[in-house]
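TA notes. Do not distribute before section.
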Amino acid sequence: MKRPREIFIAVIIFLILSSSCAYGDTWTPAKNLSNNTCIAVAPTIAVDGTNIYVVWSACRPADLYREIYFKKSVDGGVTWTVKKRLTNNAGDSQYPTIAVDGTNIYVVWMDYAPGNFEIYFKKSVDGGVTWTANKRLTNNADDSYAPAIAVDGSNIYVVWQDTTNGEIYIKKSVDGGATWMMNKRLTWNAGASYEPAIAVNGSNIYVVRYDDTQGNGEIYLKKSVDAGTTWTTKRLTNNAGASYNSAIAVDGPDIYVVWSDYTPGNWEIYFKKGVLF
């Protein structure tokens, strides 16, 4: 049987932990990472331990075309390296996304250098100190738009929206981005599919998008359990209002999806959870 002193100490510890859990979510002051004389937009972030990596696009003051920039912190965001410019193109470089696996960092973006938007890829194997040359992943008649990337070891998956036919495509590398397989079309719809997001857990790949086939935007999930060889589809929303701008995260068998939804009469954020099916 516990003595009164032991009970008292246990209660105090419980109260401290409870107070920390309930009220301990504190935030540092905002820190300006870009310090740009022109606009800096569309940031994305990836984390590995205390290492934080951020990419964004910012315009060149001379001609207002955008380039991709990178910044890193190795101490959980206390201090940051000098920003590094990753692109130097004649056309716009926009909407970068980033993924990290240890010291390997992978960035994709849409670039107008060829005369229309195509998807490009860049990699660092030393935590962002040095970078490979740009690698063009798409070569389409129209624009390739809104890329997203996910990594699992040496397997890299990139998804994007192709405005040639309004469908979603995926491309895979099994050697850390050195070589890439052919594009694989994921959607075949009467309407258009937009803004894919991707998450990976081992051989399980999940891609969400919004689709206007039904007359308003609805959220759909594509899933592969064999590293992208075969795919199944699941409709996640069936609403009176439009459902747009989905994002996804996975942890083990649990799948988490968020999106913006106009069903209440104004745009609100909705959440849905599923398990591997």
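Switch to the second chain here.
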Amino acid sequence: MFFKTELPGTKKEDIDIKVEQGRLVISGETKRSEEVKEENYFRVGRQYGRFQRAFPLPEGVEDTGQIKASFKNGILKIVVPLQKAIKEKEKAIEIKVE
């Protein structure tokens, strides 16, 4: 399973990823500041805000320690490996005589 989200202007330190109650929870805070200096004017813009997003995980996720996350150029990628269910083969049961 693969998650990809864009978080422009967000730093790695401002992002939290955790698994709780069978859900993958991504939360954090965006702090962005823009400054424009021109000959006739000066403009400063600031944007702040918290965000949180939760995704249900399928039943095949057993080892949350295997979840990997990477963050580059404002793109967060999370890989959640799924355990493949082991299908039992038909097996004859031998009857022993006592």
